[in-house]
């Protein structure tokens, strides 16, 4: 019986040491309690976050008031929606971060991006 216990302990230790640890994805609510809206500095919001591949961004906003477009860096800088972009419009949009590198998001309603800076740029790490 003691041998079985020792083998079990050795196997448990080897399992913990040799098997790669899995990373748990984090779900970030963009803007925290304020959500996706005008009047927030999303770069400040993102500055203390460590975004990784597999994480999710949740954009909460009143449906019909805002939307979310995933854009490229140039479109982000100029608040332009490039064709054929599709808006996320549910009011509770979940975007999975699938690849490392820069990711950009803007609101395409009216001048929310250009006048009210409703946009977010993040760096996703592998």
Number of helices: 4
Write down the CATH topology.
Answer: Immunoglobulin-like
H and E order: HEHEEHEEHE
Q: What topology, given as strand order, has the largest sheet?
A: 1-2-4
Mean pLDDT: 90
> Quick one: biggest sheet?
3 strands, mixed
Structural class comes to alpha+beta
Q: Which range best describes the helical content: under 10%, 10-25%, 25-40%, 40-55%, 55-70% or over 70%? A: 25-40%
In total, how many beta strands?
6
- Please identify which CATH superfamily we are dealing with: Cupredoxins -  blue copper proteins
* Overall tally of domains: 1
Task: Look at the structure and give the CATH class.
Answer: Mainly Beta
Walkthrough of the structure:
Residues 1-25 form the signal peptide. InterPro entries: Cupredoxin (IPR008972), Phytocyanin-like (IPR039391), Phytocyanin_dom (IPR003245). It is a single-pass type I membrane protein. It is found in: Membrane. GO terms for molecular function: electron transfer activity; metal ion binding. By secondary structure, the chain is an alpha+beta fold. The protein has a single domain (23-124), classed as Sandwich (Immunoglobulin-like), CATH 2.60.40.420. The protein contains four helices and six strands, in the order H-E-H-E-E-H-E-E-H-E. The strands form two sheets. It has a three-stranded mixed β-sheet with strand order 1-2-4, with no helix packed on it. The chain is elongated, with a radius of gyration of 21 Å. The protein starts with a helix and ends with a strand. The model has no long low-confidence stretch (mean pLDDT 90).
């Amino acid at each position: 019986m003691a041998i079985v216990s020792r083998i079990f302990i050795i196997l448990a230790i080897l399992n913990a040491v040799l098997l790669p640890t899995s990373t748990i994805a984090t779900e970030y609510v963009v803007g925290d309690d304020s959500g996706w809206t005008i009047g927030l500095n999303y770069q400040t919001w993102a500055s203390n976050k460590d975004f990784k591949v597999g994480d999710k961004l949740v954009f909460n906003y009143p449906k019909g008031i805002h939307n979310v477009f995933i854009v490229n860096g140039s479109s982000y800088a100029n608040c332009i929606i490039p064709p054929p972009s599709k808006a996320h419009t549910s009011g509770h949009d979940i975007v999975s971060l699938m690849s490392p590198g820069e990711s950009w998001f803007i609101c395409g309603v009216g001048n929310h991006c250009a006048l009210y800076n409703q946009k977010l740029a993040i760096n996703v790490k592998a």
